[in-house]
Hints:
3 domains; five-stranded antiparallel β-sheet; disordered N terminus; Beta-Lactamase; six-stranded antiparallel β-sheet
Amino acid sequence: MTVEPKLRPVSDEWLPSIAAIPLVELSADGKIVAVNDNYCELLGRSRQTLVGLSPLDFTHPDDIWATRQAIMARPRDDDRGRVLEKRYLGVDGRVIWVRVTSVWQADRQRILSYVADISDLVTARRRKEALIEHSADFIFVVDAEGKMSEANPALERLVGPTLGASLRAIAGERCHPDDLEALLAAFGAVEAGPGLHPSISFRVADDAGHWVHLSAIANNQLADSDVQGIVINARDVTVETERIIQTERNQQSLVDAFTRAVEFRDPYTAGHQLEVSRLARRIALRLDPRQRAIGPRVQRRLLRLRPPALGLICRMGQKRLMVQIV
Length: 326
């Protein structure tokens, strides 16, 4: 449990005795007048070394200007504290990320600051940002007005700059015409209801004009104060989709080839079926000349033929086929 110091005047003897969190007290000109043991441990420096120095002496060069501004802009008496995230440099040169909260003590003309080590938090935050930045997936956020509020580099590489643009406008320009209606309907459903929604597949054109197959899933977090948007994660499934299409084509080609092979190797059976079907069609047209095709009514009349009649049709087909073969 973190214990925050009480915001009251402190003495130089009282400050070093607080061990719950690193504390440092600065004079009005920004010099260190007192520190506690935790502050010394954080920096790897002794109290005797630190007192009399300025925090600027061991601040990361990129953060010196912001630190100087924070010291010069003294907090007002009614401030609950001003916060600055910055980097210290340890004795061994290691970078220490800290969050410094400062309170101005007007009666003593000093600045009391308590320091939290956030190195692990910053590392985790940067790792998360790097994962999103280098992700091959397209990750973006749409606000309540339907505009793009955040997007990772992968999306910009696909469709160009998108921040501030309307998602519907981008879809109208990039989405395949056959997929646009379904995509807009799905997005309307996402806007209407919170939480996760079913995935949807669609095609968009990249900058080179090639169609890219995407599979996207949306999570409506408009009600979440930390997000205030619809988080959409889309994945490029072009390779998988084209593989499925090619597999279906190969299967159909195989069926066609097998059919042709059967007809070639057994012309009698294949030809017999063809001749019987032709005879049945001619009989059907004689039964009902108005029919150009064998409809349900004619089919029922054919089925009512007695077996001898059906056998006669089959034998006629055989004889016609034999004549053709000979």
